[in-house]
Amino acid sequence: MVDAMQVVVSPTHYLFQIYRNGVTFLACTQVEMPPLMAIEFLSRVADVLTDYLGDLNEDIIKDNFVIVYQVLDEMMDNGFPLTTEPNILKEMIAPPNIVNKMLNVVTGKSSTLGSKLPDAAASFVPWRSTVVKDASNEVYVNIVEELDACVNRQGVLVKCEAYGEVQVNCSLPGVPELTMSFANPTIINDVTFHPCVRFRPWESNQVLSFVPPDGKFKLMSYRVKKLKKTPIYVKPQLTSDSGNCRVSVMVGIRNDPGKPIDSITVQFQLPPLIVSADLTANHGTVDILADKTCLWTIGQIPKDRAPVLSGNLRLEEGLAQLHTLPTFQVKFKIMGVALSGLQIDKLEVKSTPSAPYKGFRAQTQAGKYEVRS
């Protein structure tokens, strides 16, 4: 299901789907429509339910079925997206808590629905309430990126792209006007915006102008194509003969991002014709899971030596050499830097009683990072 097509076309219907934490979100239409619109709406549904429920899986959805149904009913009306902002939805439908659950059990009725329309219903910006309570006069901006890469058997980088989001946590009083600009906006492609963003300033000057929702929200998402380097390298070598396969995997820093590279793991699936595996590492831990996945947890790369995984794989009797070579999946995290090179140049805040506090952060983690052997 993870690799299932997001768009499925039948003679009479169009199906759109996304996969999150073991749950498939499915939308069906009878007429052709832009796929990105449907996929973006399904992603929004998943994000809103995660915000409501704290996590997202099949059991949590079953336990909170009434709230899920009510949220979906408000998010879409007659087949069209309606209310998609979590802060507005929470004024209409209270998030689940112990008191609400007990009242539901005792009375048999839902106690989550509000008795009045949210304040934002009377606002000229429907994603923001006219009265923001407990505003601390702060705004935080995070650039969060995932790096997708593919390295072929010759060690050549054949694909390297960054998928990013600009996430904002806003706690500003009144109805503030924000303007954000990037130092290098020309590197980004395939941009999608939150409804609060005014498109004309971006189209003419690559400047984001918007009145933000209160709380956390995704301001924009983007892609940066054809990056030329990855921060780490993984060099696997597998040689087999006489029923034995020798394995050596070296990991090191190729392009120092200037920040520590954390949470490095390398995993691969043992081929089906392997009888036994004897693998060790000079740094980190090696675990072979029940489904024959080898997980090498490195953490951080030490400065004095390159981590190396080595050992032997014993093939089935009668098999001289290994014909199916594994693909290595790489994970890592870097705090404090966006590997695409995207940087925020300026953030201006207007229409607030006093100058707010502004904070900026960036992080990158590996998405689908494959190294073929």
How is this structure best described in words?
With 373 residues, the chain is of the alpha+beta class. It has three domains: 7-116, Beta-Lactamase, CATH 3.30.450.60; 138-227 and 339-372, Sandwich (Immunoglobulin-like); 232-335, Sandwich (Immunoglobulin-like). It has six helices and 21 strands. Strands 9-11-7-6-21-19-14-17-16 form a nine-stranded mixed β-sheet, with no helix packed on it. A four-stranded antiparallel β-sheet has the order 12-13-18-15, with no helix packed on it. Strands 1-2-3 form a three-stranded antiparallel β-sheet, with helices on one face. A hairpin with a 2-residue loop joins β4 (76-77) and β5 (80-81).
Task: Record keyword descriptors for this entry.
4-stranded antiparallel sheet; Beta-Lactamase; 9-stranded mixed sheet; alpha+beta; globular; 6 helices; Immunoglobulin-like; single chain
Low-confidence region ranges: none
Average pLDDT number: 87
CATH superfamily annotation of the largest domain? Mu homology domain, subdomain B
Structural class: alpha+beta
- Calculate the terminal CA-CA distance, rounded to whole Å: 25 Å
Described by strand count, sense and barrel closure, the largest sheet is:
9 strands, mixed
The CATH topology of the largest domain is Immunoglobulin-like
The helix/strand order is EEEHHHEEHHEEEEHEEEEEEEEEEEE
| Rg (C-alpha, Å) | 25 Å
How do the strands of the widest beta sheet line up side by side? 9-11-7-6-21-19-14-17-16
What's the number of helices? 6
Give the secondary structure arrangement, pairings included.
Elements: E1 7-9, E2 14-20, E3 23-29, H1 35-53, H2 58-63, H3 65-75, E4 76-77, E5 80-81, H4 86-92, H5 98-107, E6 138-151, E7 157-171, E8 177-182, E9 189-193, H6 199-205, E10 207-210, E11 215-224, E12 232-241, E13 244-253, E14 261-269, E15 274-281, E16 285-288, E17 293-299, E18 308-315, E19 327-335, E20 344-350, E21 357-372
Parallel strand pairs: 6-21
Antiparallel strand pairs: 1-2, 2-3, 4-5, 6-7, 7-11, 8-10, 8-20, 9-11, 12-13, 13-18, 14-17, 14-19, 15-18, 16-17, 19-21
